């Protein structure tokens, strides 16, 4: 039986383990961390990712955990509505879009892997590998190695597997925007299931959405917020998702942001822990892997977090990889077919996220109406407003008819 070693127990690595196991493929998961603790704040799972997790048997617990996002709406920094559209089932998908805590999703996946697949090896940092033809030998910090039929580098932005495959890349690429993120409980706003975007990251932008079904049941909203500010400082901060930020540093950019339906300074002040992160990505790769080694998720295609696509694309990678490994005649051809399917799609998304088409329109509103507006039609033409929909089709890869009509990727 084919046996696959997965480096990384994040969302991509854990979903890969579940998908391979469901397809009858042996799997070992290793991670550099000494203990696997949930990290991060809120994320969105798009309907195409929710479909795949549902087919892995996780649909009910997702519904019990996250918020089925009803709409996404853009506002100016004064709270004036610019544009919005339904999300998930309200847009016509057979599956919802979920907003949830990243730690809750990781814990759900981790518990399911432990129950179905077995132990995950922690404190096992991959330092290198050797493709020996009939197998790949994976080496670990402190000595020791394991042999496998394939190595999947799902070890994130700072992937050791990617570094050996593509040496000399250097640091992730920063676009000058610093992000602060956090979670705080508040009164529900805009119906309780809205993903709200205010302002423009040409200067300052604020994103807020609820992420907890249990808080909603109590009549409250556990709100994930993201503050994006473009800085003149050219010194790139460390790209560490668990780096603590300071309230005063973010608050000074939003001191007078009362949107009417949300008091931004109060939400920031109510946050127990603020995280700080630069908006970074890497250039799209001309190839991901060779022989018995390939990449997945952020190790393969890190992208700006503006299209709700980071975790969603990792889930799709995992499902496509398992399908090809289960149906191909040999391991190497399976990995080639997986890359041929996924790399062009995800490379295009990386570039689309860099282009930031929706943010250009938000910046236009800020320049034309810096003090706010009574009617957005006084600020943007009908053609410009229609561009918002096209922008999100580009950055999310949304295609309702395709997803609803395509065959299942499950292989049993």
Structure summarized in a few sentences:
This protein is an alpha+beta fold and 412 residues long.
Molecular structure report:
The chain has 412 residues and is of the alpha+beta class. The protein has 12 helices and 17 strands. The protein has helices at 11-22, 47-65, 102-116, 160-165, 213-217, 247-251, 264-269, 310-327, 331-355, 357-368, 382-396, 400-405; strands at residues 3-7, 26-30, 42-45, 67-68, 71-75, 81-86, 98-101, 126-131, 136-140, 145-148, 150-153, 173-186, 194-200, 204-210, 221-230, 275-281, 293-295. Strands 6-5-13-14-15-12-16 form a 7-stranded mixed beta sheet. It has a 4-stranded parallel beta sheet with strand order 2-1-11-17. The chain is globular. It starts with a strand and ends in a 7-residue tail after the last helix.
Unreliable runs, pLDDT <50, ≥5 residues?
Answer: none
What kind of oligomer do you see?
A: single chain
Radius of gyration over C-alpha positions, nearest whole angstrom: 21 Å
What pattern of helices and strands is seen along the backbone? EHEEHEEEEHEEEEHEEEHEHHEEHHHHH
Helix content: 25-40%
Structural class: alpha+beta
What is the overall pLDDT average?
A: 93
Number of helices: 12
Shape: globular
Strand fraction: 15-25%
Number of strands: 17
Strand order across the largest sheet: 6-5-13-14-15-12-16
Ends apart, CA distance between termini: 14 Å
Q: Could you give a short account of the major beta sheet?
A: 7 strands, mixed
